[in-house]
């Protein structure tokens, strides 16, 4: 591809308070400008289209994660040593420590229990009729993920705040990131106490980490960050996806009726929810050596921003991308990333979301807004913090 002589520039701040709450107009403007767009406000290059995002994610030797995936150099330094922020053998070693707990076979062993929990949660919600969809969406992940990771019962009341802060800090060094620091530090202190006092639940990922540290596979100092690394993404992205599904089906009643008429569409519907309302906005990568992408020269050291949520609305890939339809084949979405750093817990996230929707389909005839939704201001996660809903029993 011929080299582009001029890289388009986008000067608005895509992490301003208003842009965080409504990012999609910015993404559309970025895609219109080109495949690689310079963001002078953040000293980075945005990848707003699908093809370039996917190419960067698959080329893990050129677009590396080991120097951090945020836009804040301080947080990037502090967050080193996790699965998310490592490359090569270090990444493979850390990921392998818990991979056996996320295999299809391991998830099959969890399926009946997760379906039972989902049905109980939905049944209780239907009995109340009027619910906060954001709280309802959090209930299933909160009942599953902390146990799997091994997080002690003490401290679970802070997990939503702590997890959100962990993501928020990975944005640029703006007000949002600064406000997130105390909660992020509190989560790290708690995780260190779990490791120091060995209070991770038996038979959990956390227990596996402690065993690996005892055996010399990793150090005990690595364990707290890895526990957070396993817990926060598994919790926040899943509850954001479920809340997004509730919001979309409440505001698209015809789509809800299609799903009730044909529940075999549930896996497809989950993909479309993740495409249309991607929980994860973006992570960055650092360019390891001089390269080109879409004809744009990117010198070593350049920070590129992989805009997952924008790629998932790319009209070059998706027909009528701003329309939500569960009949679309959205399986190519990038909501879970791709390549070496693709979400290790995506199978669990799908299992939880599908179980939740199956319970909802069985018990709810209609769901409708009962008031205006409110989005959570967060640099990285696109999440509802309040979603009033009226549920009509089936």
From TrEMBL:
It comes from the Bacteria. Keywords: Heme, Iron, Metal-binding, Monooxygenase, Oxidoreductase. GO terms for molecular function: heme binding; iron ion binding; monooxygenase activity; oxidoreductase activity, acting on paired donors, with incorporation or reduction of molecular oxygen. CDD domains: CYP199A2-like. PANTHER family: CYTOCHROME P450 YJIB-RELATED (PTHR46696:SF1), P450, PUTATIVE (EUROFUNG)-RELATED (PTHR46696). Belongs to the cytochrome P450 family. This is Monooxygenase.
């Amino acid at each position: 591809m011929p080299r582009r002589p001029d890289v388009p520039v986008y000067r608005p701040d895509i992490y301003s308070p208003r842009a965080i709450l409504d990012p999609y107009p910015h993404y559309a403007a970025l895609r219109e400008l080109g495949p690689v767009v310079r963001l002078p406000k953040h000293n980075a290059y945005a990848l707003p289209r699908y093809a370039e995002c996917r190419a960067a994610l698959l080329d893990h030797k050129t677009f590396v994660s080991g120097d951090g995936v945020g836009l804040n150099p301080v947080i990037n330094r502090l967050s080193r040593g996790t699965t998310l922020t490592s490359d090569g053998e270090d990444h493979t070693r850390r990921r392998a420590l818990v991979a056996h707990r996320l295999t299809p076979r391991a998830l099959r062993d969890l399926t009946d229990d997760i379906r039972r929990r989902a049905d109980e949660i939905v049944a209780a919600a239907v009995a109340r009729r009027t619910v906060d969809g954001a709280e309802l969406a959090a209930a299933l992940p909160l009942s599953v993920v902390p146990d799997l990771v091994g997080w002690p019962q003490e401290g679970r009341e802070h997990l939503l705040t702590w997890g959100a802060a962990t993501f928020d800090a990975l944005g640029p060094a703006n007000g949002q990131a600064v406000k997130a620091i105390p909660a992020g530090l509190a989560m790290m202190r708690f995780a260190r106490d779990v490791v120091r006092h060995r209070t991770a639940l038996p038979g959990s990922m956390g227990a596996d980490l402690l065993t690996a540290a005892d055996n010399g596979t990793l150090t005990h100092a690595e364990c707290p960050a890895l526990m957070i690394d396993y817990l926060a993404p598994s919790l926040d992205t899943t509850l954001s996806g479920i809340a997004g599904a509730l919001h979309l089906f409440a505001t698209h009643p015809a789509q809800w009726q299609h799903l009730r008429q044909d529940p075999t569409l549930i896996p497809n519907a989950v993909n479309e929810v993740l495409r249309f309302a991607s929980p994860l906005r973006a992570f960055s990568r650092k360019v390891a050596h001089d390269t080109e992408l879409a004809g744009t020269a990117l010198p070593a050291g350049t920070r590129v921003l992989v805009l997952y949520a924008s790629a998932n609305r790319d009209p070059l890939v998706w027909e009528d991308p701003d329309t939500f339809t569960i009949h679309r084949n959205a399986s190519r979405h990038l909501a879970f990333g791709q390549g070496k750093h693709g979400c290790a817990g995506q199978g669990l996230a799908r299992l939880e979301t599908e179980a939740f929707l199956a319970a909802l389909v069985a018990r709810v005839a209609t769901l409708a807004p009962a008031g205006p939704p409110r989005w959570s201001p967060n640099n990285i996660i696109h999440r509802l913090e309040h979603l009033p809903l009226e549920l009509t029993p089936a």
